[in-house]
Amino acid sequence: MQHTGTRRAENRINLIPTTLIQDLGYCKDSSETILMLDVGCNSGDLTVALYRHLQQRAPSEDPIKPPHTDLHLMGIDLDEALIHRAQQTNPFPQMISFIPLDITEDSSLQTQLEVYLSQHARSHFHLTLCLAVTMWVHLNHGDSALLRLLSRLASISHHLLLEAQPWKCYRSAARRLRKLGRSDFDHFKALAIRGDVAEHAREHLEKHCGMVLIRCFGSTTWDRRLLLFRRTEITEKTR
Ligand SMILES: C[S@@+](CC[C@H](N)C(=O)[O-])C[C@H]1O[C@@H](n2cnc3c(N)ncnc32)[C@H](O)[C@@H]1O
After folding, report:
1. Is there an atom of ligand 1 within 6 Å of 44 CB?
2. Structure confidence by residue, pLDDT tens digits, 61-98
């Protein structure tokens, strides 16, 4: 039987075109280094599946050349056990790195990301993924942390693929904890950002972070949308 996690991964990946990297205007030359970041990569299943997905060749492409020989991906998660598992099962250790990092952290996060980017002589990731992570940061750290997270993602990326959990997931998460006899998330009741969280995120990214929504990959059977944002200005300085 197929693992639920695998089905969930496939469900979302199938919404993303295999030609995404080229569609964004990268990889005109197949040897161009492309850098991706997956925030909240968990045990890496989705990360690896997506890496494979983006390496698939479009039927019209030259069958001899691999689409992106130099696609590098860094997966981060605050859970060290999950990262350990991801490292152990990583089928492409030369191309995918899994590192334990908290995206809400300041100094160590900054340092690790800078080191990774500078190893590839870049100042930004071409594409950052933040899939099903916003709710955890929002519930654990509050409204300002959610906005800080979005600003941070925007500041390190040229493109951002965002899947924000809908409000009903917040209620289920809080209910699950209550059933376990644990107190509610510290911030749940006090959150001012509620309802259509994806729309709040879009507004923040467009008004305050120099990003613009360019595509929406529809909603999955879990009623979530994958929103693709692009930095409005890509200058020599931000390359
Ligand atoms: C629901 S899972 C999503 C996993 C994967 N991105 C996906 O969409 O299938 C959320 C992940 O975010 C991670 N996470 C939560 N808060 C985080 C933070 N502050 N920094 C890094 N990862 C975080 C959790 O450990 C968990 O692995």
Report:
1. no
2. 555 555 556 899 999 999 999 999 999 999 999 999 99
Rounded to whole angstroms, the Cα distance separating 198 from 166 reads 7
User: 195, 102, 115, 116: which is closest to 145 by C-alpha?
Assistant: 102
Residue identified by tokens 């992106």 is 68
- What pLDDT, in 10s, does the model give residues 177-210? 778 777 666 678 889 999 999 999 999 999 999 9
| C-alpha–C-alpha distance, residues 126 and 149, integer Å | 18
Whole-number Cα distances in Å, 152 to 129, 158, 213: 13, 12, 17
Order the strands of the 211-219 sheet from edge to edge.
Answer: 96-100, 71-77, 34-39, 125-131, 157-163, 225-231, 211-219
Distance in Å, CA 64 to ligand 1 centroid: 37
In three-state secondary structure terms, 90 is coil
The total of other beta-carbon atoms located within 10 Å of residue 137's CB is 22
Pocket test for ligand 1, best of 38, 77, 135, 153 (most atoms within 8 A of CB): 77
Distance CA(138)–CA(145), nearest Å, equals 6
What CA–CA distance (Å, rounded) separates 36 from 46? 13
The complex scores an ipTM of 0.99
Q: What is the mean pLDDT of residues 12-22?
A: 90
Q: How many beta carbons lie within 10 A of that of residue 118, not counting itself?
A: 10
The sign of the dihedral angle between the CA atoms of 145, 103, 53, 233 is positive
Q: Give the integer Cα–Cα distance in Å for 197 and 225.
A: 11
Map residue 49 onto helix, strand or coil.
helix
Summarize the confidence of residues 130-135 as an average pLDDT. Answer: 96
